């Protein structure tokens, strides 16, 4: 493959601080490169340099002649008053592909890009878009320019799971090469054709491996073990060198200058190896719990919310108990953040629907007297809820790191007083950084500041709204461990599928159309979605086959040699039993789909949600019922074939 872009010995310095130096990398045509590394290593700065948006202090960057590249930043900004169409059209006008020559072609390219990404109302103002929709639009704006190389900085931060899967498919289409900064572990495994880590742990500042995350971690471990062995061998040589150099003055006069230089070079090399081989650090994340034993910390019954004339969710039940790890999922704009605000008391629920009121009357005798009224949220007495906001608006960019963590020189952590510098060091901040304004910190560093503040408050319930944004992989793993061990309840909104798979013991999915559906865990959700996609493919095929059968004209009574339609000729003759099965297939499918709807309703019953055993049984029954629907559709297609 031909090289699209080559960087050699790139370095960047901020005053006395060296961000990185001696970094070299290249990108080949249609290659999918993932750029990872510790927070603060300089990934975003390096990507901006490759995009021609940031100055570098040393080295060279050589793009292929005529290279068309597009860069998508972490933050998504659009002109005031812009619409979906105008935002993309402006991008095409600014850098039109060579084959486009007039305004009509520019507009056609913008419209096609928007439809391809999934937008339909092209006159929609950009100001009303959700975070995920803004990210999709930013990527669409870049794709409309038909780049050879697409550069994306943390694109998964604001995309929902469906959006991330769309992005993976787009990058794997093979139409262009890409460089993506991300720490989404499933994304790295399924999408990256090569992973490059930017880190001071490597002699040239980077480590590159062909393949996904699993292969990268295996090769990285091999390399670091080899580097450790190299340090041990060199340490023995340096020990001999120091003994030789320590001999008396007479001996020193006769020593070879070349041997002295070689000894000093080994000493310097050993010091560099020790620095590179220093154990990687991760933030000391450990949420404090109140150890409350209350069985039901928070109970929401039949809560609903409509905003701007649109119903976000309707008649949703939520029960949070100690040990609950509830994953909250749904498309961007489906109301996840709004539901959090209702649960935490920031917003009031709308009145329950008539259907919910009627159902509540029918099961009134089954509910305990302590059950909250419909459309209300019942919280345990003096419930302590700690909220991690995805927007991190609580951080004042003008304040210093030290002032943000504590207005004094100490904090109270787990009932003991410790110095603010010691506490900051737990989150990988140096003493010098205490005087740095929040505005100068990277996205990952700001996330660690937010976590540091949350850990100062003991909690019964942790509400985490996209906590993984900008965090590097070691910090993500420590965060997962802390949440796994947290004895209270956790409400987790995240696009990190690996975290959902590991932590969530229940998953609530908002469908974006007012509905809400429970799953036993993330893997069951994935399984159900796969079945639904298969059904969506199977159902039209079966329906088409049925239409063909009923609409194909039959001969009125021709001879045995009369021509017959090909479809009819190929169609196998059904036995009496098979024909009877086919005749009743639509009714059986309707019955099976009705059973799925009944079980889904049962899973949302407060009495079932409150009983772990009943919920597990309901989930198993739902899986079996959905499997039966899939089987019936497949059988219908087989009989019609």
In short:
The protein is an alpha/beta fold.
CATH architecture type of the largest domain: 3-Layer(aba) Sandwich
Radius of gyration: 30 Å
- Overall geometric form: globular
Query: What is the strand arrangement across the widest sheet?
Result: 5-6-7-3-8-9
- Name the CATH superfamily classification of the largest domain: P-loop containing nucleotide triphosphate hydrolases
Q: List how many beta strands DSSP finds.
A: 20
Classified by CATH, the class of the largest domain is Alpha Beta
Q: Would you tell me the structural class of the helices and strands?
A: alpha/beta
- Report the sheet-strand fraction: 15-25%
* Helical fraction: 40-55%
How much is the average pLDDT? 83
Topology:
Elements: E1 3-14, E2 17-28, E3 32-36, H1 43-50, E4 58-63, E5 69-72, H2 84-94, H3 103-117, H4 131-143, E6 149-153, H5 161-171, E7 177-181, H6 185-191, E8 194-198, E9 206-210, H7 213-245, H8 249-253, H9 257-276, E10 298-307, E11 310-320, E12 325-329, H10 336-344, H11 354-362, E13 376-379, E14 385-388, H12 401-405, E15 410-413, E16 416-419, H13 420-425, H14 443-454, E17 461-465, H15 473-485, E18 489-493, H16 497-503, E19 506-510, E20 516-519, H17 522-551, H18 566-570, H19 576-583, H20 585-603, H21 606-609, H22 612-640
Helix pairs in contact: 2-3, 2-4, 3-4, 7-9, 17-22, 20-22
Please explain how this structure is put together.
α2 runs parallel beside α4 (131-143), α17 (522-551) runs parallel beside α22 (612-640) and α20 packs antiparallel against α22. The strands form 5 sheets. Strands 5-6-7-3-8-9 form a 6-stranded mixed beta sheet, sandwiched between helices. A 6-stranded mixed beta sheet has the order 14-17-18-12-19-20, sandwiched between helices. It contains 22 helices and 20 strands. The model is unreliable at 545-570 (pLDDT under 50). The chain is globular, with a radius of gyration of 30 Å. β6, α5 and β7 (177-181) form a beta-alpha-beta unit. It has 4 domains: 3-217, P-loop containing nucleotide triphosphate hydrolases (Rossmann fold), CATH 3.40.50.300; 231-276; 298-519, Rossmann fold (3-Layer(aba) Sandwich), CATH 3.40.50; 523-549 and 568-640. The chain has 641 residues and is of the alpha/beta class.
């Amino acid at each position: 493959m031909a090289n699209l872009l080559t960087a050699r010995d790139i370095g960047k310095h901020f005053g006395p601080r060296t961000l990185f130096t001696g970094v070299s990398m290249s990108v080949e045509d249609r290659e999918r490169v993932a750029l990872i590394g510790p927070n603060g290593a300089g990934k975003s700065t390096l990507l901006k340099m490759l995009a021609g948006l940031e100055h570098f202090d040393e080295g060279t960057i050589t793009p292929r002649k005529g290279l068309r590249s597009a860069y998508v930043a972490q933050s998504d900004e659009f002109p005031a008053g812009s619409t979906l169409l105008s935002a993309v059209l402006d991008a095409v006008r600014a850098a039109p592909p060579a084959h486009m020559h007039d305004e009509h072609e520019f507009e056609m390219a913008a419209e096609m890009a928007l439809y391809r990404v999934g937008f339909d109302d092209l006159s929609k103002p950009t100001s009303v878009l959700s975070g995920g929709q803004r990210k999709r639009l930013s990527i669409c704006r870049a794709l409309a320019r038909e780049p050879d190389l697409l550069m994306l900085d943390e694109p998964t931060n604001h995309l929902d799971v469906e959006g991330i899967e769309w992005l993976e498919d787009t990058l794997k289409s093979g139409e262009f090469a890409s460089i993506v900064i991300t720490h989404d572990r499933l994304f790295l495994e399924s999408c990256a054709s090569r992973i490059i880590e930017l880190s001071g742990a490597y002699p040239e500042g980077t480590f590159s491996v062909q393949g996904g995350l699993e292969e990268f971690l295996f090769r990285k471990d091999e390399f670091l073990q080899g580097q450790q062995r190299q340090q041990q061998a060199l340490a023995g040589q340096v020990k001999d060198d120091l003994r030789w150099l320590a001999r008396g003055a007479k001996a020193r006069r006769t020593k070879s200058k070349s041997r002295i230089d070689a000894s000093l070079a080994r000493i310097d090399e050993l010091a560099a190896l020790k620095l590179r081989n220093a154990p990687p650090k991760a933030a000391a994340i450990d949420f404090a719990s109140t150890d409350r034993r209350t069985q039901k910390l928070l109970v929401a019954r039949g809560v609903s919310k409509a905003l701007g004339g649109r119903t976000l969710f309707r008649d949703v039940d939520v029960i949070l108990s100690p040990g609950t790890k509830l994953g909250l999922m749904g498309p961007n704009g489906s109301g996840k953040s709004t539901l959090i605000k209702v649960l935490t008391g920031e917003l009031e629920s709308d009145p329950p629907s008539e259907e919910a009121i009627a159902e509540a009357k029918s099961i009134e005798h089954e509910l305990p007297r302590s059950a909250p009224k419909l459309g209300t949220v019942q919280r345990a007495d003096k419930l302590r809820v700690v909220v991690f906001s995805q927007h991190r608006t609580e951080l004042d960019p003008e304040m210093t790191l030290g002032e943000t963590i504590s207005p004094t020189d100490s904090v109270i952590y787990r009932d003991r007083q410790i110095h603010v510098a010691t506490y900051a060091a737990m989150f990988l901040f140096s003493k010098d950084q205490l005087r740095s304004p929040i505005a100068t910190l990277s996205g990952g560093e700001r996330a660690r500041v937010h976590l540091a503040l949350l850990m100062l408050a003991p909690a019964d319930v942790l509400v985490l709204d996209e906590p993984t944004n900008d965090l590097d992989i070691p910090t993500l793993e420590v965060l997962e461990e802390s949440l796994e061990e947290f004895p209270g309840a956790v409400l987790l909104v995240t696009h990190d599928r690996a975290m959902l798979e590991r932590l969530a013991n229940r998953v609530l999915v908002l469908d974006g159309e007012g509905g809400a559906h429970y799953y036993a865990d993330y893997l069951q959700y994935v399984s159900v979605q796969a079945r639904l996609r298969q059904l969506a493919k199977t159902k039209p095929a079966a329906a088409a086959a049925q239409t063909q059968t009923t609409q194909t004209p039959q001969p009125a009574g021709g001879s045995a040699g009369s021509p017959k339609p090909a479809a009819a000729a190929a169609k196998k003759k059904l036995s009496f039993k098979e024909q009877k099965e086919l005749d009743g297939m639509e009714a059986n499918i309707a019955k099976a789909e009705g059973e799925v709807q009944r079980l889904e309703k049962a899973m949302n019953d407060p009495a079932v949600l409150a009983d772990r055993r009943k919920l597990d049984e309901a989930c198993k029954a739902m899986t079996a019922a959905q499997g039966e629907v899939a089987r019936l559709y497949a059988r219908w297609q087989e009989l019609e074939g």
